[in-house]
Design the sequence.
């Protein structure tokens, strides 16, 4: 059996990278997806779903280097279930309500925000931006010296 999840959303915070005891890099970040719809009463509603995303290996290093809060990304991956229940992780919020947390193991990450988009959001000139070029992680050169921008 096989499953694949595809998301387009915005990063909720800057990525955080750490290393496993074996030295494998792991980068984690959150992505918010939004859905706007009209309910039965004719009111426009917005639904936001948050996903915790983890990237491993070279993908983790690239995500940590280029992704920043607010950037739009496309992610393909698989859901990682809670090892105890096989479902999304459930937790109790401070107000006593139950929440769930969806974790996605990224296999493909494409940067949808351009350097100009990020520079405008940060209020900086596009030439001084450090955001990644639009495109796939696979499109990036292997060595930092070979980056064509």
Sequence:
């Amino acid at each position: 059996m096989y499953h694949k999840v595809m998301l387009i959303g915005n990063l909720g915070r800057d990525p955080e990278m750490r290393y496993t005891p074996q030295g494998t890099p792991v980068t984690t970040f959150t992505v918010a997806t939004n859905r706007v719809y009209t309910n039965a009463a004719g009111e426009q509603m917005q639904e936001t779903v948050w996903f915790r995303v983890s990237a491993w290996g070279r993908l983790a290093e690239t995500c940590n280097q280029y992704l920043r809060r607010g950037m739009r990304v496309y992610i393909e991956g698989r859901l990682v279930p809670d090892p105890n229940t096989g479902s999304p992780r459930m937790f109790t919020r401070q107000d006593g309500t139950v929440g769930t947390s969806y974790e996605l193991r990224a296999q493909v990450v494409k940067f949808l925000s351009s350097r100009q988009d990020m520079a405008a959001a940060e209020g900086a000139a596009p030439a001084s931006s450090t955001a990644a070029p639009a495109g796939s992680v696979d499109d990036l050169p292997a060595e930092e010296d070979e980056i064509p921008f």
Summary: The radius of gyration is 17 Å.
